[in-house]
Design goal:
By secondary structure, the chain is mainly α. It is built from 6 helices and 3 strands, in the order βααββαααα. Strand 2 (64-67) and strand 3 form a beta hairpin. GO terms for molecular function: actin binding; microtubule binding.
Length: 199
């Protein structure tokens, strides 16, 4: 168990919490960044880091965490000795595609269809297996990472660019949370309620 310091510094936050806090969908740039950082994390886990990749199961925005340093991680679901096996890449990418699609659609009226740029739509179609060319081999982690890199005018800067984008997303969330707490506290003061340091 991780011990929190007295300031209760938050090191990571789920994508679901970010979406709830902002009350609007992520931008395309944030979607590219989350996708890239998640794939980089999967790549690390596939190389034998703990937890093993087959224990990762992406189920909604609550399964993905954005860290203060701009990295990403996943909620781990321990399934009794059952490995997804060799299809782990394709399955996880499909789940990731669903979550990113959800994050881009968050809070938008179901009657309204969000217009996505061609490169992002193409990438999501690949990840969600919506591509008509059924004969094509399954998309791999490397395919998605490469697409994210090539989305930038300087592909070599992908790692630092996407890390910075996710770090900003985390910082914006923390600042908004701070603001919400201040507003909530000042309301309590006006109502004459006793204040507690931590709710």
């Amino acid at each position: 168990m991780e011990f929190l310091c007295c300031e209760q510094k938050i090191a990571k936050v789920s994508l679901a919490e970010i979406l709830r806090c902002f009350e609007h969908p992520v931008s395309e740039e944030q979607a590219w960044a989350v996708c890239f950082q998640c794939c980089r994390k999967m790549e690390q886990l596939a190389q034998g880091l703990c937890p093993p990749l087959h224990s990762v199961f992406i189920k909604g925005p609550g399964s993905i965490f954005i860290h203060a340093d701009g990295s990403a991680s996943f909620k781990v679901y321990h399934k009794s000795g059952k490995s997804i096996g060799s299809c782990v890449d394709a399955k996880l990418l499909e789940y990731l595609g669903v979550v990113i699609y959800e994050a881009l659609d968050w809070g938008i009226d179901s009657q309204v269809e969000r217009e996505l740029s061609d490169p992002l739509e193409k990438l999501l179609c690949l990840m969600l297996k919506l591509d008509e060319e059924a004969m094509k081999p399954a998309v791999t982690l490397q395919d998605v990472i490469k697409a994210c890199e090539e989305h930038l005018s300087r592909p070599s800067e992908a790692t630092s660019h996407y890390e910075m984008t996710c770090r900003s997303l985390f910082t914006e969330y923390m600042e908004l949370q701070k603001l919400v707490t201040i507003i909530h506290t000042s309301k309590e003061v006006h109502l004459g309620s006793p204040l507690s340091c931590y709710s």
